[in-house]
Amino acid sequence: MRLSTSVAALLGFSAELASAVSTFSPARPPSLPLAVKSPYLNSWLSAGSDGGNGGYLAGEWATFWNQQITGWVGLIRVDGVAYTWMGAPKDWPQVVDQTEFSYTSTRSTFVSTVGGKVGLNVTFMSPVTPNDLRRQSLPFTYLDVAVQSIDGATHDVEVYADVSGEWASGDPTALINWDFGTSNGVAYHTFARQDQQEFAEVNQQASWGTWYWSSAEGDGVTYQSGIDVDVRNNFIQNGALANAKDSNFRAVNDNWPVFAFAKGFGSVGSSSVSTLYSLGLTQDNAISFLGEGSGMTTVPSLWKSYFSNGLDAMTFFYNDFGEASSLATELDNKVASDSLAAAGQNYLTITSLSVRQTFGALQFTGTDSAPLVFLKEISSNSDIQTVDVIYPAIPLILYSNPKLLAYLLDPLFQNQENGHYPNTNAIHDLGTFPIAKGYPDGSDEPMPLEECGNMIIMTLAYAQRASDTAYLATHYPILKQWAGYLVDEALIPANQLSTDDFAGTLANQTNLALKGIIGLRAMSEIAKLTGNADDEKTYGDTATSYIAQWQGLGINQDASPPHTTLSYGDGASHGLLYNLYANSLLGFGDFVPRAVYDMQSTFYPTVALEYGVPLDTRHTQTKSDWEMFAAAIASADTRDIFIQKLANWINVTPTNRPLTDLYDAASGDYPGLQFTARPVVGGHFALLALP
Ligand SMILES: *[C@@H]1O[C@H](CO)[C@@H](O)[C@H](O)[C@H]1NC(C)=O
Ligand SMILES: *[C@@H]1O[C@H](CO)[C@@H](O)[C@H](O)[C@H]1NC(C)=O
């Protein structure tokens, strides 16, 4: 794949909006990440032709992952002439000429020229600091805007940016309040729903908490809140704002209140000058949880452990840009060098797009001494702590900081070990985000074999990486309970769902059985590490016996080439054997014989379609996370086919919402369901999580 592609030209976008054509590097994602930091701070720019404009920041609204507009406007004046660099406000001035878009793991950068006179670089940075919980806990994001003269002359330049009340509620008729202040060198607008409803959402947006939209206090900075068209026109006419607050608190959509800053740079020459903004949502409490004790408890946001209030958190974040930038560059470089070394540029195209999306689905809560990380199963019904959504994401989690996996598993252990779940199998999820009330009546989505295998495999994977055998001892009784379920059910799986529940139920799923059997092998290892020698032998013997039988039941040896089946006895069927990955992740060597790896590796290219290898023979759809699990343990040739097809798909797919993991491998489009911004793309790091 080319490193840089003029997708706009390929797609036939004309010059109606932009007179320049942008390059996209390393690819043009279906949707470009702008502010992607937490489940509620999650805003993107649609690019794919299903509904996007090809990836141009000016002339289209940024949207929340669930597609509501998150009003965000950027304007610039050069020698008194106004241009639009972000958003699609009413009667917007001519757009700047976007020439480049690029992304890294933490940044999205748009490079434009303005009237041929000024260069404009707009960088969205959502920090990801897996080993620095204090910084990771802050639900804030940066926007940096830099300008310089590019024609040898000097120019008068003023830059404008606003956000609208749309960030504060998914209900545009909700009433909001706002204010303006300064603190520690930071000028800020704050706005919030008048009717605060803790733990409630409308259209997936939070109905509680306070938003901060900030910039530097000082020279040439003016501010204003007010009616969208008035405030923007004020800037367009004057290049500055009124330093005034609108005192008429009202609904989000009632004369659209916006919160704006303008920065006058004066005369700008060839050296780059810049202005920095930050945006974030502070909520004292994050999650309602049934864990320890008999009733629901309120779990604070983790940032509360480090900062006394939202204002302190905001000023720290704003003034931390220098350090945050270095940490971001460190992570960008680490992902880049590791991905390039593992499988080259196509692989980096995939991994670097997946970092913010994965971390953006995580809510960091609890306290510094006992953090809890809650995951939102974004777009596929918003379950909280879905075990088979955490599982596909663990490659990135293990790669970045294995401790985070324990913080994700802890809520599941706490809920079930305190007697809040009656079934002997492992639970599927803890409810609907942000209310983790569990299923005291055992009525969760039934995926018993999948989740028993997942819990045991993930717990061991964490303990291995973090050298934490105490964790295994602490949870031994319930792990053993789940292993008992696997002894009874793994070899001949009953008719049931696997994690790919959109495909429906099926008996004797070959891939699902393999997960259960590897789960038993993992339980033997857990027994060994905790000094339970009898259990080590019993589970080990059972796993060894099952894996031998499984090869007889699940492989079509007569096919040319041979392959595993989708379900026992259905010789013509096949599917991605992604559960084999766990055998390698946990270092089990020849427990599953090498011949099985080689067989699948030879087989996959024979059934590959244009954009990937189908998930199974029921449909032409596939899952990008499972493709990367399969790729990670395949031969180099087969691995590269998977990776090349996925990287190409990212660049050309018509899908337009934040990266879907489920797509049609023949058409490249949505297969019907529109999965959006799901954290399972952490699985794209499968190559980098192997021991
Ligand atoms: C924008 O980025 C490019 C590439 O890094 C750089 O050469 C240019 O000077 C930057 N422009 C501004 C205005 O900072
Ligand atoms: C599952 O496979 C076993 C072993 O081949 C077989 O005995 C059983 O009938 C199968 N179950 C179903 C529902 O097909």
Give me the Rg, rounded: 26 Å
What is the class of the domain at 5-322 in the CATH system? Mainly Beta
Distance between the termini: 29 Å
Classify the secondary structure makeup into a structural class. Answer: alpha+beta
Strand order of the biggest β-sheet:
1-7-8-9-10-20-16-13-12-18
Tell me, what's the shape?
globular
Topology-level CATH name of the domain at 5-322: Beta-galactosidase, Chain A, domain 5
Bound molecules: 2-acetamido-2-deoxy-beta-D-glucopyranose
Total count of strands = 29
Q: Which range best describes the helical content: under 10%, 10-25%, 25-40%, 40-55%, 55-70% or over 70%?
A: 25-40%
Give the second-level CATH assignment, the architecture of the domain at 5-322. Distorted Sandwich
Q: Into which percentage range does the β-strand content fall?
A: 15-25%
The main β sheet shows up as: 10 strands, mixed
Q: Please count the helical segments.
A: 18
Give an overview in words.
Residues 1-20 form the signal peptide. It comes from Neoarthrinium moseri. This is Glutaminase GtaA. With 691 residues, the protein is α+β, with helices and mostly antiparallel strands. It has a domain at 5-322: Beta-galactosidase, Chain A, domain 5. The protein has 18 helices and 29 strands. Bound molecules: 2-acetamido-2-deoxy-beta-D-glucopyranose (2 copies).
